[in-house]
Amino acid sequence: MCGIVGLFIKAPELEQDLGRLLSAMLETMSDRGPDSAGFAIYGADKADLVKLTLSHSDPAALERVAGALDTHLGYPAERTIRSNHLIVSVRRADEERARAFATGAGLRVVGAGKRMEIFKEVGLPIQVAEQFGLAGMSGTHGIGHTRMATESAVTTNGAHPFSTGRDQCLVHNGSLSNHNSVRRELTREGLSFETENDSEVAAGYLTWRMREGASLREALEESLKALDGFYTFVVGTENGFAVLRDPVSCKPAVMAETRDYVAFGSEYRALAGLPGIESAHIFEPEPAKVYAWERA
């Protein structure tokens, strides 16, 4: 049992409140996932720059590596340190060099994109949200996850969201039965995986299909044939937000839509504190149907 939340802002005036609202939603799902938690925020971008989210068990190492990275690249890269995560913005042409330098220095690449920043850690959701200052973040959309581990160890790497492509991430409640065979197929297609978690395979499948030209909606529709098991997915991309439940849909899910936002929660109580919820269109996503929204 895990908890999922997501919020896609339509009204620009609400973007400054994204972190505050998502933080409250995440905290509400604590009893569905007390082992670890994580979230992705899609914030502002800068032309020709890529944000790398990097992590290390020792926060002091982040400042040292960040300074050495500046020397390696030959320019001061914009950076923000939040606890044991480092967000560093590098020129698009330098992304691979920066990745190689960071991993060589013992840091882990959590995600990368023009707009996406990912934070995740072991601990209660309220502690994780406070550790990284989620309530003070702004952006257009975000997704979050509270994990109750059932098939793999409780580790930072095993926490959600999982990201396997630029500005792409996924959170998942459920269990995939064919993730090992799908992982082997995706590895042959050039994807790599850092964990044995089935959710990372789902993220990788979507990355592969979108790399081959599918839209987010099309990739999710194709996943209904490729991925076996019980699942609810909430997915974020640079400009998109999507939800999919498996054909049986035994995992709980509820959504709310107003003219200002679209929200997802594993349970209604995750949505109860949102502004205007009393007049929102509340609905349960149908089985095997893709729900997707995208910013122009």
TrEMBL record:
Q: In the record, what terms sit under GO molecular function?
A: transferase activity
Q: Which UniProt keywords apply?
A: Glutamine amidotransferase, Transferase
Q: Which PROSITE patterns match?
A: GATASE_TYPE_2 (PS51278)
Q: Which domain of life is it from?
A: Bacteria
Q: Which Pfam families match?
A: GATase_6 (PF13522)
Query: What region holds the Glutamine amidotransferase type-2 domain?
Result: 2-296
For this protein, the record's CDD domains field holds: GlxB
Q: What is this protein called?
A: N-methylglutamate synthase subunit A
Organism in which the protein naturally occurs: Bosea psychrotolerans
According to the entry, what is the taxonomic lineage of the organism?
Bacteria, Pseudomonadati, Pseudomonadota, Alphaproteobacteria, Hyphomicrobiales
